[in-house]
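Hey, I'm writing a tutorial for new members on how sequence and structure tokens pair up, and I'd like a real worked example in the thread rather than a made-up one. If someone can provide the structure for the chain below, I'll link this post from the tutorial.
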Amino acid sequence: MTASTTRRTTAARSRIAAVGAIAVAGALILTGCGDQTEKGSAATPSGKANAAPLFSKLPKKIQDAGVIKVGTDATYAPMEFTEGGKIVGVDPGIAEALGKQLGVTFKFESGTFDTLIGSMQTGRSDVVMSSLTDTKARQEGLDDKGAKTGAGVDFVDYFSASTGILVKKGNPQGIKTLDDLCGKKVAVQRGTTYEQSAKDQSEKCKTAGKGEVSIESFPTDAEAQTRVKAGGAVADLNDSPVAAYIAQTAGGGNDFEAIANPTDAGLFGIAVDKKNAELRDALKAALDAIIKDGSYKTALDKWNAGSGAVTEAKINAGS
């Protein structure tokens, strides 16, 4: 769901809340307590042995804290959103399973999407887990023009998603593919790969001698949805599971339809500072472990997101 750098034609990030519905909350949620039932030798902050299988792989700073601080934009159901004052969804569910392997708590704090990577690099969070598409530009710290803007990040890739096109119920403009957006107005969330995707599509339309795409960018995807619902834009570009969820839930399922484009599937990754390879590698080991034990599948299935499952953890596999 970019830290101002591009979010690629694959999936990425726009945000939801059943049509302006799910409010962004600064609420915090703790997920993923460590399993203390087996023998272990690593110590917790209380001095007791931590029995979690992968606790010893974590950096000592996180072992001592007992917490991994997670930056997220909790306005993007079903991936991460606020419900009853807590941040819930696919990503917190996966984090809970990871926490059981690592023996620490994942503490989510919501912020503005396009500031998440920068906030992590200044120490406000340890990782970013926010439906963030793994792209080479983000890995290298480049903006949408290829200019260097930061040190870049590493990704532990955990989910696959494609572009979802969200249109008004009944699809009055007959949108079936991105090419049908030529000459029309599209709403997107600012700082996402879909903002760049819309720009790329506009250039494609121009080259083909069709009308360019008119793009309106908003701070949140909820605002982009409202624009589509009001008829001010024909579509909102989004991640496929998110677009599907919005179509199912907004207005009781009466506001939108979702069109998927599975040919451009891309990877979501947990972003980690490049200087923190130890944490990155611990997260990769934990993800492989929960894929193997089935708790990863359980976390996805709870939100009907199983179609985005990956079969193994990879580092920086995005394009």
